UniProtKB/TrEMBL annotation:
The lineage of its organism: Archaea, Methanobacteriati, Methanobacteriota, Stenosarchaea group, Halobacteria. It comes from the Archaea. SUPFAM superfamilies: ATPase domain of HSP90 chaperone/DNA topoisomerase II/histidine kinase, Homodimeric domain of signal transducing histidine kinase, PYP-like sensor domain (PAS domain). This is PAS domain S-box protein. It comes from Halobellus limi. InterPro entries: HATPase_C_sf, HATPase_dom, His_kinase_dom, HisK_dim/P_sf, HisKA_7TM, PAS, PAS-assoc_C, PAS-like_dom_sf. The keyword Signal does not apply.
Length: 587
């Protein structure tokens, strides 16, 4: 029965047809990472299966031996293409252009040439003879040592490629696990019968069942392709991302093991260390940096590089394995040179402007008062009066800037629970009366009617001085820009505007509304000569609320302005506050 139907040949030919069909489906993915080499691998399997299936019908010894050329050509280059696929698919594509890979390709070309010319020298095999099995032209021949060398190279390449794919399974967790595991395991099924045939083990040594197992191998590949998005989720992206996360960070990164030896660093770190990255690897950290403490806080360090001195902030974090054991440390050096320079410039300018400008303007103000008292001309007196008023405004602005700085510095400390109603009542008491300098208002400005509609038990989590600055400037802004005789402002809680963990407080006035250009500049990184706010009040509100971990919305209508502040409640932690406001954008 077996001899009546050439089942072995038919199965081998069917395996080749299945391989060609799979190649057809894979063809649109040829430009994906690993796609072209995976196609070439399946193509070699198709060549092997079809050549072996046809050869089983050829009983002429010379012609039958000629079929060994395409069979062994496919065997030789399956390993090359599968290894190339594994390298590119797992993010090691740069090795394809290495001398080692070039040597592998050259060796397989040599193997193929020896197979083609074997009838001349018999280096690969000898004593070639047809020995029919089940009515098919199976063959026997003496395996010469070079044939084993040839086969060993093929097996080694398959093994290395499978190892690279298996390494992806363990390195990247579940993200690429299924498809990489399927592809890594699939070569086992045709590999076992090939080893048995090579060792001439089994009841029928001439019978090579390798092509018959290709469909099982392809089944795993098809699973990876069709079910697991084989070419959509490519491990190379993760490997490249891991490397890019260090290389493109913009900061110097050094990774040391538990013995403080450098095991990884990026090019920026090489420039900081004063040596090439490759030369730094394997050396102890102290060889290049002896002032970095892995166990404590580090002060910024200064290093001289091309272009001058650079200052770096040093941050260290321990590396642990799956069991929690310490295996090393990551050190990040962030270049803060420009930041330090800006801070220094701002500090100097701030000190000079606040001190010198205030002193000089006070002198100017005194002289203006003296000049106004000695001048009889009414026009000149009016001009001097305007000059004195503007000078006083600039001095007041400088004092307010100093107040802002102190308030914002206080806001970075750990916030405390603050009862909102007493704080608001204290602020409004001064702003509701006509007093010189009350809340920054002049004695010529009208009194204001401020209503506080906030329950006694309402508390927020904030720095009291910063919270006071926010509400004081917000209320002051509403009063100062209202032309009516008695400005009206209402402060109330707005539950419909609240978010989990936050208290919404609405400040509503019936004034003309904040000009659009003054709100627009709050979204900009700076002010221009043509687009500027009239003062610092709105900036104080915006900066202050942001420092408190909240959010602010300005709603301008025909009947006035509604400002909604969202402030963290007293029970809210700092971490959740950050999460809550991250989803909102301040206008």
């Amino acid at each position: 029965m077996l001899s009546a139907f050439p089942w072995l040949a038919a199965a081998s030919l069917a395996s080749g047809v299945v391989s060609l069909g799979f190649m057809r489906y894979l063809w649109p993915y040829r430009d994906r990472l690993g796609g072209r080499f995976f196609l070439a691998t399946i193509g070699c399997e198709a060549l092997w299966s079809l050549s072996y299936g046809l050869a089983l019908f050829v009983f002429d010894p010379a012609l039958r031996e000629a079929f060994e050329v395409p069979i062994w050509t496919a065997i030789n280059f399956i390993g090359v293409f599968f290894l190339a696929f594994a390298l590119e698919y797992t993010g090691r594509g740069h090795l394809l252009r290495s001398k080692a890979m070039g040597s592998v390709v050259a060796l397989q070309v040599l193997h193929t040439l020896l197979v083609v010319t074997n009838p001349l020298h018999r280096i690969a095999w000898s004593d070639y003879a047809v020995e029919p099995t089940y009515g098919l032209a199976t063959v026997v021949y003496a395996h010469q040592p070079w044939l084993f060398v040839n086969a060993a190279g093929f097996i080694l390449m398959i093994a290395v490629a499978s190892f690279l794919l298996a390494d992806t399974v363990f390195s990247y967790g579940p993200l690429y696990r299924t498809q990489a595991a399927a592809i890594a395991v699939s070569p086992i099924f045709p590999g076992v019968p090939f080893l048995l045939w090579l060792a001439e083990v089994g009841a029928t040594p001439p019978l090579n069942l390798t092509p018959l197992l290709f469909p099982v191998h392809l089944a795993f590949d098809m699973y990876a392709f069709f079910s697991r998005d084989m070419f959509e989720m490519v491990p190379a992206a993760r490997r490249v991302a891991d490397r890019a996360a260090i290389d493109n960070l913009g900061s110097a990164v050094v990774i040391v093991d538990s013995g403080r030896r450098i095991i990884e660093c990026n090019d920026e770190a090489g420039r900081l260390l004063g040596t090439a990255r490759s030369d730094a690897l394997g050396r102890r950290l102290e060889t290049h940096l002896d002032d970095v403490d892995l166990d404590g806080d580090n002060e910024p360090i200064t290093r001289r590089r091309a272009g001058g001195k650079r200052t770096y902030a040093v941050a260290t974090s321990p590396l642990t394995d799956a069991t929690g054991a310490a295996v090393g440390d990551t050190i990040v050096f962030q270049d803060i040179t420009e930041e330090r320079r800006r801070e220094q410039r701002l500090a100097v300018l701030n000190r000079v402007l606040r001190h010198n400008l205030r002193n000089d303007l006070n002198v100017v103000s005194g002289y203006l008062e003296m000049a106004e008292a000695r001048v009889d001309d009414e026009d000149v007196r009016r001009m001097l009066d305007v000059a004195a008023e503007n000078t006083a405004g600039v001095v007041e602005l400088g004092e307010k800037a100093r107040y802002i700085e102190r308030a914002l510095d206080a806001g970075v400390d750990d916030p405390d629970p603050v009862e909102l109603r007493p704080l608001l009542e204290e602020i409004t008491e001064g702003l509701s009366e006509t007093e010189p300098d009350a809340g920054g208002r002049s004695e010529t400005e009208p009194a204001a009617e401020i209503t506080v509609d906030v329950d006694d038990d309402v508390t927020v989590r904030a720095a009291p001085s910063l919270l006071e600055a926010v509400f004081e400037n917000l209320l002051e802004n509403a009063i100062e820009h209202d032309p009516s005789e008695t400005p009206t402002v209402t402060v109330r809680t707005a539950e419909d505007e609240a978010e989990p963990g936050f208290l919404a407080v609405e400040v509503a006035d019936d004034g003309p509304g904040i000009p659009e250009h003054e709100l627009a500049v709050l979204d900009e990184t700076g002010e221009t000569a043509l687009e500027h706010g009239s003062g610092l009040g709105l900036w104080i509100v915006t900066w202050g609320v942001d420092s408190l971990g909240g959010a602010v919305d300005f709603e301008v209508g025909a009947s006035g302005t509604n400002v909604v502040l969202r402030l963290p409640t007293a029970s809210e932690t700092a971490g959740s506050r950050g999460d809550g406001v991250a989803e909102r954008d301040n206008p």
